[in-house]
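Researcher: Here's the sequence for the chain we discussed earlier.
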Amino acid sequence: PEEWRAHPHGAALAVGPLLTVRRTGAPTPRRLSLASGTAGGTPLLPASGVRVLDFTRVIAGPVGTRTLALLGADVLRIDAPQLPELPAQHLDTGLGKRSALLDLRSPEGLAALDELLADADVVVTGYRPGALAKFGLDPDALAERRPGIVTVALSAWGGPGPWSGLRGFDSLVQGPTGIAHIEADGDERPGVLPAQALDHGTGYLIAAGVLRALTERQRDGRGSHIDVALARTAAWLLRHHDPDEHLPAFPRRVAAGPHLAHATVAQGELAYARPPFTIKGGPTDWAEPPVPWGSSPAAWW
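Model: Thanks. This is the structure I predict for it:
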């Protein structure tokens, strides 16, 4: 951790916020219908009516949009047909969403994207910084085209700093930041966190940031751009690390049964983790199980 704090990128992140929010555009008349209270057993869904375009992969971004789906948002994940997807990973992070394939390199794909953006409230991206700009998905272009929109950019390293444009993933970020050294506990081999905590933690930050930005839009009609990064989440965790505290290498085992829900999907019977939080009157599970990857039309419903 000391070496990372002395590194130019680590030093830049050490003093920054956990996530950054920049307001965009002039006020617009765009508002969402206020979420109603529970009635007749219907759960409170604070993101009901919110349309989210999900251009994320792997864990962090999909966890964020999965959380928005839990809270009632219409989430459409868009993937390129030429990129692979781990089936088990999609089953885990696809709860409550729809999944479509769209080749943005084709005129037809761009035309379909234009139609989706015309009615989108939120766009979440999780590719290498700048990789989607050529398709008009950079935050400034989206804010100009769709005033009031909320955009999220997820990256590995964040900025400012010399590594801001680099690719990365949770386990990789744990190395330079010093988390792997801490978890090694004196072993020459790098250690790891018991779970992909940077991914999951950053995912929930995405959902929280989007909800706050939508709340602000209800007040003044302006959009927001949110930046989150795995390395920023790592920096926050390290700020709260006590080097004199020695904990077991792995937490104690608990019975999984009470924390699992079950659904029937195309692949068979699915057991999945229940939501890690509840809100008063809110949902206790996703409204729909994951659909097969790429099986939905690239259109709102």
